Amino acid sequence: IADYPFALIHIEIETITEIAEHYGPAMSERVSVEIGKRLRLAQSDCNGVARHAGGFAVLISDFRPQTLSWAGPPSAEPSSAAGLLHLAHALAAEISRPLRIDAHSLSLSARFGIATEREAHADANAMLEQAARHDHPGALTLP
Known about the structure:
This protein has helices spanning 16-23, 25-39, 81-96, 124-133; strands at residues 7-13, 48-52, 55-60, 99-101, 104-106, 110-116, 140-142. It contains four helices and seven strands; from the N terminus they run E-H-H-E-E-H-E-E-E-H-E. It is an alpha+beta fold. The chain has a five-stranded antiparallel beta sheet with strand order 2-3-1-6-7. Helices cover 34% and strands 24% of the residues. Helix 1 runs antiparallel to helix 2.
């Protein structure tokens, strides 16, 4: 997308393996479905959410305020590094809300990585790998 800002936020649900080991794979699948439902708030005509490995990938290409109203008032230009971190924090807040499935109260922890069009990527896979690394300045860990 030449000359248009866009970003990929990768969310790794760190506790999903523990949930699968403790409650079984069906429970971890239900947790993933519930998280996916929460992340639908980021979905729009130009922004998307998809499951990826043990987490999710969120593509943001529409930075208009009305499209990102789910994140609350931005602290900076939404496509800037600070603005993207604000969006990641808003997604973290959605994921960190208490999750209750059947009689089980579950706490989740997640790591977030951000890759943007400003970085050099050979292709979409390279961009996703960059976001999934979680060890660059755009990384955020949810306790």
